[in-house]
Amino acid sequence: MEKNISNITDKNIRDFGPEDTIYIKKIIGNYDYSYYCRFVKFEKGIVTAEIISHNRQYGRNIDKGKIITTRPKNCYLWGKFSDDKYMYEGCHWFNKNGTVLKD
């Protein structure tokens, strides 16, 4: 993943489908990874997604296509909302209820 792909939406994570993408942050062995994923499902407070790519230039190539799970608070979207007061694109994290935070 050389550059973040804009996937901004104000949909609740409960309304996501297989056509949606999401970023997931995971810490593995003291290294943090940002995975760009295809959304699979949200069930019982857990997000399930399939890895498309990740932000590390080395190792972990085995991750592509792998299914991962996490809580919504570890998920974010990338982009800029049309009514955003900031000039640049950025991360917009989800809260525990699955709503994307605009600030």
The gross shape turns out to be globular
Number of helices: 0
N-to-C SSE series? Answer: EEEEEE
Low-confidence stretches: none
> Helix coverage percent of residues?
under 10%
Rg: 13 Å
Main sheet strand line-up: 4-3-2-1-5-6
How would you characterize the largest beta sheet?
A: 6 strands, antiparallel
Number of strands: 6
Question: What is the count of structural domains?
Answer: 1
Calculate the terminal CA-CA distance, rounded to whole Å: 24 Å
Mean pLDDT: 86
Strand content: 35-45%
Helix and strand arrangement:
Blueprint: E1 21-28, E2 31-43, E3 46-54, E4 67-70, E5 75-79, E6 90-93
Antiparallel strand pairs: 1-2, 1-5, 2-3, 3-4, 5-6
Task: Explain what this protein looks like in three dimensions.
The structure is a single chain. The mean pLDDT is 86. The chain has one domain. The two termini are 24 Å apart. It is built from no helices and six strands. The chain is 0% helix and 42% strand. 19% of the residues are buried. The protein has 103 residues and is mainly beta.
